[in-house]
Write a structure and sequence with these properties.
binds zinc ion, 3 domains, globular, alpha/beta, four-stranded antiparallel beta sheet, 17 strands, four-stranded parallel beta sheet, single chain, Rossmann fold, 45% helix
Amino acid sequence: MSLFSEHNISIYNSISGQKEVFKPINEGNIGMYVCGPTVYSNVHLGNLRTFMSFDMIFRYFKHLGYKVRYVRNITDAGHLENDADEGEDRIAKKARIEQIEPMEVVQKYTVDFHNILNLFNFLPPSIEPTATGHIVDQIEIIKIILEKGLAYEVNGSVYFDVLKYNKSYDYGVLSGRKIEDLIHNTRSLEGQTDKKNPQDFALWKKAEPKHIMRWPSPWGMGFPGWHIECTAMSIKYLGKHFDIHGGGIDLKFPHHECEIAQAKAWNDCSPVNYWVHANMLTLNGQKMAKSTGNNILPSEILSGNTNQLSKGFSPSVVRFFMMQAHYRSILDFSNDALLASEKGFLKLMDALKTLVNLTPSNTATNFDVSNWKKRCYDAMNDDFNTPMLISEIFSAVKYINQIKDGSSSIDTENLKTLKATLNGFVFEVLALQDNTNSNSDKKLRETIEILIALRKQARDQKNFGLSDQIRDQLAEIDIQLKDSKDGTTFSLD
Ligand SMILES: [Zn+2]
């Protein structure tokens, strides 16, 4: 019997606004689509959090024995600067500025995306389709929506007719937006667009001859709209009705609302059973934005090479930090929060090392291991509540330390259960990696601490020549010291 048959997962479904018991369409199998990155710049930290939330969900399903087909796309065309079908294609713009081919932009940032995800111990999705690889599929869907009279062609572009669609269907079903409000609140684009109504959205856009990313279609040379790619790719690989569609909360409207409308217009079927949205990340209490400098790249967190952090942090510390918040909560990223997570992470890794060498005794345990195990699963079954899981993990950490110091005991059977459950949740589901393991790494860190203390002594004695020499020579071998009011920290590149 598979583990999943013993567990009822409830998932918060954005479309109903409620937690619902999860029932896959085909027992034992799950189809999950997550909107992937638009590859025109380095993956930013907010996106990393979104993808990490779905990596955790993917991992938990697999842990329970489900067969999961996880599709996460790469957007390499069609995503304009402005989500309302205006502005330049993000990739084409970058290519123009850097004077390289759009596909060079795509290649560069796809590689960056994969490298970063590997560093943070992500599992690859089952299929990673690209928008440009599915132009034909998108054109076929647009043709059918046109045939059904729910889209119209103007001057080489095709737009989805939201008002007409809403007569037979329910535009706004996911976001809760009312069509009347949308009409009222959308500014008129008179003279700037071919759209009949401002709330309509592009399925296909005509491309001027100078546009570098263009494909032939029944309506002339052009490129697909951003929303249609996800409809084409999700349905192609998961079927016209699949289990889970995920993405960042910012995609709920208009992107996911439009996906529902397209799929229903195309084949009269609501495409998705459970809509799952991961919440955003703030930095020092503020929205992250490149323009204000309140921004940090995942690679900068690892190197510590940023004025936002006092030092670098390992990928597992960052993962642990992110998993300490529920995926639907806003999470604030800060140096202090990461330092606190690092402490917790190291404490956990120490306990897991202790666990390996614990000897069972014959006396009965005074910690109910099977009840604790059940609570761990209950936490994850309750809409993937990782902070609750981590708090359960720490009650086990406390118990392990009590066994170590002799104030508690454990028998053989319970020790086996404790080990298997902790290893499963910590390494498989939360995907933390113990990189504090090697003895030489520990010794290196202790040696650097000795050098930092000697440097401080030299500075206290106003021997700045020596203190600078220590700092510079360490820098030469890529060990960066960083001074702050709380003392000196270091990072190893
Ligand atoms: Zn998408």
